[in-house]
From TrEMBL:
Listed SUPFAM superfamilies: Aminoacid dehydrogenase-like, N-terminal domain, NAD(P)-binding Rossmann-fold domains
Protein name (database record): Glutamate dehydrogenase
Glutamate/phenylalanine/leucine/valine/L-tryptophan dehydrogenase C-terminal domain sequence ranges: 195-424
Taxonomic path: Bacteria, Bacillati, Bacillota, Bacilli, Bacillales
Record-linked PANTHER family: GLUTAMATE DEHYDROGENASE, GLUTAMATE DEHYDROGENASE 1, MITOCHONDRIAL
GO MF annotation terms: glutamate dehydrogenase (NAD+) activity
Keyword annotations: Oxidoreductase
Similarity annotation: Belongs to the Glu/Leu/Phe/Val dehydrogenases family.
Pfam families, A to Z: ELFV_dehydrog, ELFV_dehydrog_N
Domain of life: Bacteria
Length: 426
């Protein structure tokens, strides 16, 4: 009996942590609020295309390991699909589908001529050699080459992938295409057609959202206490930008633990010592857990790691006034409701983390025109896009009396729904 109940509870929790189901719930609500008929939801609730591939890779010890990879293309009514590739042991088909839907919403919110896509490979790159990672990256591109390309679906970096992996993938695609194809992928090194500002773009976008949210709440950034979960591409640069803005970074974390100092951590030192997977806490003895980190007394909390970190279990204990989601899907729907009821301003992932895809779009535009912009030009354009998008969603949230997540979905879903309608799909 007890065992049965435990199983039931586990199932319930799994359901609440089902990111695909959660995003479908909010999309449904958004479409309803906008007055779209049910068939629009039927079209948008799942990707239009989902490819699962098996990638054989010769490992350094001579054995062959077969990896599983995915590429989801959510909706290409607006334009080619776009979104990152994740290398992580917990990648699942459902997660990749949800991530592709979030990409569609982001592209709608910042008004890019794209739909959403996303890829993932089940692997742990932290335990793989450089050679094994290169063979895996090239094998993945060969496996998905028929459905991707500069005018079909344009990948980019995500968790545990970086500019080196983008470079290998671009090189492999260029060989298949028999053409130099920089526009096949974004997040490349500068010398291969990368854009100034792409490496820091996600964090810059989050920083702009924090600044705008803080204004609405009357919080001064100078001296504000900030906690950041995750110290990779998004989290580490965000910590640096907030530190440079005069905020006090009192907590950071990685997959192995967290660091806390109420007087402020030495962000430059941590940046200097983190490895390419965003790991830094292993160098310290006096760590706390990720769970403890999220519940620290602070003004601004930024989850910048993985999904389902703020749940109904810890939402009541969050002590920040503002939560800005740099990660995709870090807060469950139950937790969103709890935080909103508690008066905490939650800036959702599909808005806050859209700086990355925005500068990826700039990179693709530069690749297509063969003319490259300065860092200042990129930053200026990103600033305009992020401020406009933040204001639009904050206003929608106020006028329609909905939380910012639902407001963001309402703004994000509209363009692809309209494009699908004009194409005669619905
Ligand atoms: N890189 C980009 O341009 C964008 C990233 N994002 C999102 O931001 C989040 C972080 O991505 P990146 O910084 O690019 O990845 P990354 O690979 O550079 O860093 C990931 C960080 O999360 C930590 N982490 C991994 N598993 C964890 C766990 N179980 N508990 C706590 N921490 C854990 C890692 O140790 C590392 O510090 C992801 O949700 C990603 O989808 C969103 C938009 C764009
Ligand atoms: O830069 C891109 O194209 C996609 C970034 C991404 O994967 C994301 O925003 O989650």
């Amino acid at each position: 009996m007890v065992a049965d109940k435990t199983k039931e509870q586990v199932n319930k929790q799994e359901e609440k942590h089902d990111v695909l189901k959660s995003t479908q719930t909010v999309i449904h609500k958004a479409l309803e609020k906008l007055g779209y008929p049910e068939e629009v939801f039927e079209l948008l609730k799942e990707p239009i295309r989902m490819m699962t591939v098996k990638i054989p890779v010769r490992m350094d010890d001579g054995s062959v390991k077969i990896f599983t990879g995915y590429r989801a293309q959510h909706n290409d009514a607006v334009g080619p699909t776009k979104g990152g590739i994740r290398f992580h042991p917990n990648v699942t088909e459902k997660e990749v589908k949800a991530l592709s839907i979030w990409m569609s919403l982001k592209c709608g919110i910042v008004d890019l001529p794209y739909g959403g896509g996303k890829g993932g490979i089940v692997c742990d790159p932290r335990n793989m050699s450089f050679g094994e990672l290169e063979r895996l990256s090239r094998g993945y591109v060969r496996a998905i080459s028929q459905i991707v390309g500069p005018t079909k679906d344009i990948p980019a970096p995500d968790v545990f992938t970086n500019s080196q992996i983008m470079a290998w993938m671009m090189d492999e695609y260029s060989r298949i295409d028999e053409f130099n194809s920089p526009g096949f992928i974004t997040g490349k090194p500068l010398v291969l057609g990368g854009s100034h500002g792409r490496e820091t773009a996600t964090a810059k976008g989050v920083t702009i959202c924090i600044r705008e949210a803080a204004k609405r709440r009357g919080i001064e950034l100078k001296g504000a206490r900030v906690v950041v979960q995750g110290f990779g591409n998004a989290g580490s640069f965000l910590a640096k930008f907030m530190h440079d803005a005069g905020a006090k970074i009192i907590g950071i974390s990685d997959a192995y633990g967290a660091l806390h100092d109420p007087n402020g951590l030495d962000v430059d030192y941590l940046l200097d010592r983190r490895d390419s997977f965003g790991t830094v806490t292993k160098l310290f003895n006096n760590t706390i857990s990720n769970k403890e980190l999220l519940e620290l007394d602070c003004d601004i909390l930024v989850p910048a790691a993985i999904e389902n970190q703020i749940t109904e279990e810890n939402a009541h204990n969050i002590r920040a006034s503002i939560v800005v989601e740099a990660a995709n899907g870090p807060t469950t729907l139950e937790a969103t409701q709890i935080l909103t009821e508690r008066g905490i301003l939650l800036v959702p992932d599909v808005l806050a983390s859209a700086g990355g895809v925005t500068v990826s779009y700039f990179e693709w535009v530069q690749n297509n025109q063969g003319y490259y912009w300065t860092e200042e030009e990129v930053e200026e354009k990103l600033e305009l896009v992020m401020v406009k998008s933040f204001n639009n969603i904050y206003e929608t949230s106020t006028v329609r009396k909905v939380d910012m997540r639902l407001a963001a979905y309402m703004v994000g879903v509209r363009k692809m729904a309209e494009a699908s309608r004009f194409r005669g799909w619905i």
